[in-house]
Amino acid sequence: MTHLPYIVAAYALAVLVPAAYGLAAMRRLRLARSRLAALDPRPARREARR
Question: Could you tell me which residues come within 8 angstroms of residue 37 by beta carbon, excluding any fewer than 6 positions away?
Answer without folding.
Answer: 44
